[in-house]
Structure formats: structure tokens, C-alpha cells
Design a protein that fits this description.
Elements lengths: L2 E4 L4 E3 L6 E3 L14 E7 L12 E7 L5 E8 L11 E2 L7 E7 L10 E7 L5 E4 L5 E2 L5 E4 L2 H7 L22 E6 L5 E6 H5 L11 E9 L6 E8 L9 E7 L7 E5 L29 E7 L2 E8 L2 E8 L5 E4 L11 E2 L5 E5 L8 E8 L4 E9 L15 E2 L5 E6 L6 E6 L1 H4 L2
Parallel strand pairs: 1-26
Antiparallel strand pairs: 2-29, 3-4, 4-5, 5-6, 7-8, 8-9, 9-10, 11-12, 12-13, 13-14, 15-16, 16-17, 17-18, 19-20, 20-21, 21-22, 23-24, 24-25, 25-26, 27-28, 28-29
């Protein structure tokens, strides 16, 4: 029987708070395989409207050495929501990381942006020609996209520069999803934005700008999920339209799983997007967001199916969606599965009255949701500068790490959930 239970769990701040730290998104592991090192981005500000020259230190906390912070490098290619796409490289036992940087020598698809691979502890650096979005679990390739396009379509996840809408064609044949070989650095376009507009097109695509986001590679490294979005009004996220896809890494076997094309009354010229609350878009009944692989053949996502929005589990072979936790998983959140597959961790967006976000675990077999922490955010943080919890599992499934500002600092916190997951 579905239920919500209060189950407060111990929580501690990582480090001594001498600077601000965060990681970014929910869909990459912050922990090394042994659960001893915790990746982090160190900055001198709690919040700031970022400029292209603003630098951040990339490094990790050693949890076996009193949370000592070890710097690995610096970057100016970052944002508050996703950081710099810092991630452990697979099959390196916590000895190599990759993250995005700005570089005048970048020779790939996107001028001035590249990625750096850094060794631990030696600090040797290897440069890749393109910025990464997600690296395959087998370590052989990365998926790459145009962060300049995000600056126009979705600035929260872009890298600030002087790109203007006039610089970007609406749906070009030469841009979209690139696959980069992690050994050679060579990249190739596997699916263009133009091709997406020609795949089961709908009328609302005409005259709209298009982009792709939330790209994730399945555990077997043979399928990629992504969201295709388009809009005629980039300044108003409630005017975004969405499609959920999966494909093979070479762009073949393209499969459309969901489309939320719908009438948009907000295109009326009298509509003022500045009157929207920071999180109104995240609570839209039409949004597809935060997809994650449960396994090689199933995708969990917040989105609508058959006229109702829920946590939905899609079978990529049949295309069918199954509602999960309909009575207790009633808000958009950042969900991931525990290493043993028995639990799902997620969060809520802030309550408008209390500014409280809830961190919770959902037990898949029983359907019970356990609220493990209530953490307050700063209501003065804006859309680009906000601090979502973005929970990430410990590799042993006994703890979760979040970003939070509930103590007036932007820091990493470890929540001990072992009483639930090991009970």
C-alpha cells in the first residue's frame, strides 16, 4: 500500500566551509568506486551572475583524510546547475576525471570549448577537442552538444558568452548530437537538429528554435536517451515543447517515446514571463524532464503520458509507459536508482511558502516513500543561480550526497540512509 513516512536521517557537511562547494547535476556519480573520494567544484561565491572569465577550482574531497580538499585544475566553463560536467572516467578505479574547460586551442565543433582529462594524483592533463556532456559507462565514447545553443535556449545549463540568437540557425543540419571517441578525441555528428524536425514533425516546430538536452547513456553503452525541445519564445520556459527519444550511439534506431506538443496560450503578446515563479516551469503539466536509465531497456522520467503527468517508466522496446508511485510521487524531481535497484532517491522543488525541499527515498517493492530530510533554500536565488539538491547515491547504496544552501553556504552534504537501505 502506498504511503509517505517521515524517516529523518543523519546529515553532515563535507569539509570545513572555508569556501563554497557543489557538484551539479544528479545523473553522474560524485563518488569514486570505493566511496572514499567526493568530486567537487570550489568557488568563492554563494551566488553570482556568472561572467565568462569567472573561474572555479575542480577537485575532490578525500573522506578518509578528514575531508581534505585536493585541487586538480581550474575551469571557466561551468554553471551553477550542472557545474562543468565533472565526472569520473569509467574503469579507472577513481584515478581519472574529465571536465569541461574554455581553451583558445580547442579544435572541435565548438570554438573555445574543450574538455580536460586529469590524472589522480599526478595531475597530468590530456585535452579533448570538444566539451563532453556524458561519458559512456564502458569509457569508449562521449556524447557532446553545443553549450552556446544553451545560452540562448536554456541559459541555466549554458556557459556564459556573447552568443546571440542571431548567431544560431533554428534547426541546422551541421549541429545536434555528436559522438566523440574518448581514445582518439575524434567526433562525428550522429543526429542533426534538422533531422529531428523531419522525424514525425508537428506544426509547432515551424519557426521554432530547436535543441537537445538531458542526454544519458545506458549501462550497456548501446543506447542513448535524450530530450528534444523547441520553442518560439525562449524567454518563457512554459512555452517549451518536448519529445523523449532513445537511439543507438551512432544515431540509428531512433525511437520516439513521448511527445508533449500542446497549445501554448502564453504565446499571447500580453503574457509576461517575468511574473512566473522560479519553479513554475518545473511544475508544468506538460514538461518532460530528468530522465534516467533504470537499466538497459527502461527509462524513468517525469512527464505526461495518456493525459496524466507522473513518474513514468518507459520500456524502450515496446514504447509503453508504466506509472510509478502515483499516490506518493506527485512532484517533479531528480531521481536515480540505488546500486541494488531496490530504491529510488529523489527530491522536490521548494514549497512556495516555506522554501523547504524534501529529500526522499522510494522503496520500489512496497511503494512506500520515506522523507529523509527537509532542507531550506534561499528564495532570493534566481533561476540560473539556484541550488537544487540533485541527490547522488554512494556506490554501496548506504548514503546520498546533495548540494544545499540551508546553512547559508553552498556546500556538499552526505545523508546517511543506511538505516533504511540496510534495515
Amino acid at each position: 500500500m502506498s504511503a509517505i513516512k517521515s524517516a529523518p536521517c543523519p546529515i553532515r557537511k563535507v569539509g570545513d566551509g572555508t569556501a563554497h562547494h557543489f557538484f551539479g547535476y544528479y545523473n553522474k556519480s560524485i563518488w569514486d568506486p570505493a566511496g572514499e573520494k567526493l568530486l567537487a567544484v570550489r568557488v568563492p561565491w554563494l551566488t553570482r551572475d556568472l561572467q565568462p572569465e569567472d573561474g572555479a577550482t575542480v577537485g575532490y574531497f578525500d573522506l578518509t583524510d578528514g575531508d581534505r580538499f585536493y585541487p586538480l585544475g581550474t575551469t571557466t566553463a561551468w554553471n551553477w546547475q550542472m557545474g562543468c560536467q565533472l565526472q569520473w572516467l569509467p574503469e579507472t578505479a577513481g584515478q581519472r576525471v574529465v571536465y569541461n574547460v574554455r581553451s583558445p586551442k580547442a579544435g572541435g565543433q565548438y570554438p573555445g570549448l574543450a574538455a580536460a582529462i586529469t590524472e589522480i594524483p599526478g595531475g597530468e592533463v590530456q585535452m579533448l577537442h570538444d566539451p563532453v556532456y556524458s561519458v559512456s559507462p564502458d569509457g569508449s565514447f562521449a556524447i557532446c552538444v553545443d553549450y552556446r545553443r544553451f545560452n540562448i535556449t536554456h541559459p541555466t545549463i549554458g556557459y556564459t558568452d556573447d552568443t546571440s540568437a542571431d548567431d544560431l540557425p533554428l534547426a541546422p543540419t551541421e549541429d545536434g548530437i555528436f559522438r566523440m571517441d574518448m581514445h582518439t578525441g575524434k567526433s562525428e555528428l550522429v543526429l542533426s537538429l534538422h533531422a529531428l524536425t523531419r522525424n514525425e514533425p508537428v506544426a509547432s516546430m515551424e519557426g521554432a528554435i530547436h535543441w537537445v538536452t538531458h542526454l544519458e547513456i545506458n549501462p550497456g553503452s548501446d543506447r542513448v536517451l535524450f530530450i528534444h525541445r523547441w520553442t518560439r519564445r525562449v524567454e518563457d520556459e512554459t512555452c517549451f515543447l518536448h519529445r523523449l527519444y532513445s537511439m543507438a550511439p551512432d544515431g540509428s534506431a531512433l525511437t520516439l517515446l513521448e511527445c508533449t506538443d500542446h497549445p501554448i496560450p502564453h504565446l499571447d503578446e500580453a503574457h509576461d514571463p517575468d511574473r512566473l515563479d522560479t519553479f513554475d516551469y518545473e511544475k508544468s503539466e506538460y514538461q518532460i524532464s530528468h530522465p534516467i536509465w533504470r537499466d538497459d531497456r527502461h527509462i524513468m522520467v517525469w512527464g505526461p503520458n495518456k493525459g496524466e503527468i507522473h513518474y513514468q517508466l518507459y520500456d524502450i522496446d515496446s514504447g509503453k509507459a508504466e506509472v510509478v508511485g502515483a499516490d506518493v510521487l506527485t512532484e517533479n524531481g531528480h531521481m536515480t536508482y540505488s546500486p541494488d535497484g531496490k530504491w529510488m532517491v529523489s527530491d522536490t522543488y521548494p514549497d512556495k511558502e516555506t522554501n523547504i525541499r524534501i529529500l526522499f527515498l522510494y522503496h520500489l517493492e512496497s511503494g512506500v516513500r520515506y522523507d529523509v530530510a527537509e532542507l531550506q533554500t534561499d528564495p532570493d536565488l534566481g533561476k540560473e543561480n539556484r541550488c537544487d539538491l540533485h541527490p547522488r547515491w554512494h556506490p554501496q547504496g548506504n548514503a546520498v550526497c546533495v548540494d544545499s544552501v540551508h546553512e547559508g553556504e553552498r556546500q556538499l552534504y552526505i545523508v546517511d540512509v543506511s538505516a533504511l537501505t540496510e534495515g
